[in-house]
Design a protein that fits this description.
The structure is a single chain. With 283 residues, the protein is an alpha/beta fold. It has a domain of 189 residues: Alpha-Beta Complex (Lambda Exonuclease, Chain A), CATH 3.90.320.10. Helices cover 49% and strands 20% of the residues. The strands form 2 sheets. It has a 6-stranded mixed sheet, with helices on both faces. Strand 2, helix 6 and strand 3 form a beta-alpha-beta unit. Helix 2 packs across helix 3, helix 2 packs across helix 11 and helix 10 packs across helix 11. The longest helix is centred in the last third of the chain and has 24 residues. It is globular, with a radius of gyration of 22 Å. The relative contact order is 0.15.
Amino acid sequence: MQEFNADQSAHIYRAMPGLNKSSIEKLLDCPLAYKLGLEQKDEPTPAMAFGTLVHSMILEPETVPSLYHVMQASATTKAGKAEKAQALAEGKTIVSASDYERAKAMQTRVQAHPAASWLLGLPGHSEVSMFWEMPTEDGRVRQCKARADRIAQVGGGEIIIDLKTHSGAVNPSEIERTVAKFGYHRQAAWYADGYERIAGRPCHGFYFVFVSTTAPYMVTAGKMGDEAQAIGWGDCLKAERILHECEESGKWPGYADQLIEIDIPAWAYKKAAEEMDVPEVPF
C-alpha cells in the first residue's frame, strides 16, 4: 500500500499494519518490549490526551466543538454527572475547564509566533496518514506508515510540519537535547522517506513547532538539520534490520537476558569523590 490519506481517523490509522516511528524507538530500545507491546492496548496518559486536545485546537480548530465537551459543572455533583453522561453519549471527549483554558492559551501563543503561525498558515492538509512500502538492501519489502500533523505547500513543493507539546523549556539548546532524547531526528527521516516514496519526489523539509505546556507557553519553530536527519535515517534502517532478525529467528532480546553487574553512573562517583574520600570496600 502506498498512499496519502487525509480523511482517515487516528483510530483507524493506529489499527493499520506497518512499521512506524514509535515502533522504531521501541526496537532500538528493547526488541522484547516492542513485541510484548504489540499484544496490549496502550491507554493514553493524561499528558497524551491533553496533547491531542492541543493538536486539535491548533491544527483542526473547526473539529473541536464536535469532538470535545468542556465541563461546566463539577463532575462530582449530580448536575456534573448528568452533564458528563450526556457528553459521553454524544461520543465526545470530556475536558476540564482548566485544561481547555490552558490549551486555548497555547493556541493563542502559537498563533502569535511569527514563524510558527507562518508555517501552520501555509495551505495544506492536517492529520495525514501515510502508507508506503520500503524496499530493503536484501530484497525484501517492509510495509511502513506514519501520520503527519500537517503537509503544507511552499515554494513549488511540500513540507511536513510536526507540532510538539513539551513540558520542558523550548529554547534552542534544550530542544537539541529533546530531539536526541526522543528520537525526533529519526521521525524527520522516517516521514521524509515515506513522503518521497509515495509522492515520487523529495520533501522540501521537515519542520517542528514546539510549544510549552506551562505558562507562559513559549513557542519555538525550526527545520530539522540534514546531518541530524541522516543519522536518524541510519537508526531507522538499524531498527528495521533488528525487526527482521527477530522475526526470522523468533528470538526477541530483552534489556539483559543474562546476569549483569549493577553499577552506579559516573556522575555519582564524581559526586562522592567531591564530597568525601571514597571508603575502602569492606569485602
